[in-house]
């Protein structure tokens, strides 16, 4: 089969590789019909995730058809259309039993495209299938469903839930990239009074406005904008959705006393935590890897038309145009790319 193979920082290629096979009775093999690219994949290519070994097939989110299932798989069977979650879960360890699948102790967690071969390929082996793939309703098309593999559960769990977004809240989001926009879309489920998004990219700010957000350019003093809208108090929830030291510190300046700062962005360098300013404000700081325990809920919301997925998909490619898709996705400032979806021949 063909797959996108990581060859060390700055190097990857669409190569011919051996087809995957079942290694455990709890595995399934999935033919990949739709896959998307993630900002975390770019972090891997830049060398920010040193655990990813040269030779690894990248990718951790996909939609496809089960072609083979191990003897211990009970939730799906060959022929089923499924969502491949970015998180694999054994379902039995102390963390999985608490719904914290991202911290699985038995070889699960974020493993696809990280510690084992991933989804940016024609076929993928998925471990712990009963907890790691989800049957898909026909009403949710492939290119929308694939956004529920990672970006929307991450935005909802690590941003909305951990940040304790509630009705009537003012929420400030730093970063209008795909994860920031997914946060805006999923935060609507909790009815905040306003969501303020800041970014330097005009196209991304326009996308945030289309989802109902107030926007302000990052070079136009967004802290003052938030302060003016809240009578000087600041936001109940500040969301870091970039992964840079300066954007994290901007969130810390925007959050009000007793508020929540939810960090979603993947950081490749240290950020300064100004505890000398934050301790007296009773600010709660949360970070996190997604667990994907919310995926069934989000699938229900998508099926009911309550979750706007389609607006985030800006570019489409056939699966074998993987290298071009990466070029477009990485050069988002020029291409205007938000989410890029690639589909296989059978999709």
Molecular structure report:
The radius of gyration is 20 Å and the shape is globular. The protein starts with a strand and ends with a strand. It has helices spanning 39-45, 94-97, 129-132, 142-145, 151-161, 178-187, 202-210, 222-229, 245-254, 275-278, 295-303, 322-330, 332-335; strands at residues 2-6, 12-16, 28-36, 62-69, 81-84, 123-126, 133-135, 170-174, 194-199, 214-217, 235-240, 255-263, 284-286, 313-318, 339-343. The chain is of the alpha/beta class. The model has no long low-confidence stretch (mean pLDDT 96). α5 (151-161) crosses α6 (178-187). Strands 3, 4, 5, 6, 7, 14 and 15 form a seven-stranded mixed β-sheet that branches. The chain is built from 13 helices and 15 strands.
Question: Which secondary structure elements does this structure contain, and how are they paired or packed?
Answer:
Blueprint lengths: L1 E5 L5 E5 L11 E9 L2 H7 L16 E8 L11 E4 L9 H4 L25 E4 L2 H4 E3 L6 H4 L5 H11 L8 E5 L3 H10 L6 E6 L2 H9 L3 E4 L4 H8 L5 E6 L4 H10 E9 L11 H4 L5 E3 L8 H9 L9 E6 L3 H9 L1 H4 L3 E5 L4
Parallel strand pairs: 8-9, 8-11, 9-10, 11-12, 12-13, 14-15
Antiparallel strand pairs: 1-2, 3-4, 3-6, 3-15, 4-5, 5-7
Helix pairs in contact: 5-6
């Amino acid at each position: 089969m063909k797959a996108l193979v990581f060859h060390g920082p700055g190097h990857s290629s669409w190569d011919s590789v051996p087809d995957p096979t079942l290694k455990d009775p709890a595995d399934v093999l999935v033919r990949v019909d739709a896959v998307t690219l993630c900002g975390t994949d770019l972090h891997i290519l830049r060398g920010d995730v040193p655990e990813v070994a040269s030779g690894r097939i990248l990718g951790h989110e996909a939609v496809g058809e089960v072609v083979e299932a191990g003897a211990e798989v009970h939730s799906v069977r060959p022929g089923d259309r499924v969502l491949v979650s970015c998180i694999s879960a054994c379902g039995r360890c102390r963390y999985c039993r608490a719904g914290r699948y991202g911290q699985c102790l038995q070889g699960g967690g974020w493993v696809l495209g990280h510690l084992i071969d991933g989804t940016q390929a024609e076929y993928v082996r998925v471990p712990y299938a009963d907890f790691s793939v989800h049957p898909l309703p026909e009403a949710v098309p492939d290119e929308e469903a694939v956004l529920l593999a990672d970006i929307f559960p991450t935005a909802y769990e690590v941003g909305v839930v951990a940040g304790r977004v509630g009705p009537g809240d003012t929420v400030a989001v730093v970063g209008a990239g795909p994860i920031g926009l997914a946060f805006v879309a999923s935060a609507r489920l909790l009815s905040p009074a306003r969501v303020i998004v800041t970014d330097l990219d005009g196209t991304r700010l326009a996308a945030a406005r289309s989802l109902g957000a107030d926007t302000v350019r990052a070079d136009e003093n967004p802290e003052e904008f938030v302060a003016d809208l809240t009578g000087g108090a600041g936001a109940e929830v500040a969301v870091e959705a970039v992964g840079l030291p300066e954007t994290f510190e901007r969130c810390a300046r925007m959050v009000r006393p007793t508020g929540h700062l939810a960090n979603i962005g993947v950081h490749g360098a240290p950020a300064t935590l100004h505890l000398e300013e934050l301790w007296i404000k009773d600010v709660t700081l949360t970070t996190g890897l997604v667990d994907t325990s919310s995926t069934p809920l989000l699938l229900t919301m998508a099926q009911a038309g309550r979750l706007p997925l389609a607006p985030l998909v800006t570019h489409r490619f056939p699966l074998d145009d993987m290298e071009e898709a990466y070029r477009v996705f990485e050069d988002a400032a020029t291409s205007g790319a938000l989410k890029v979806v690639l589909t296989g021949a059978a999709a």
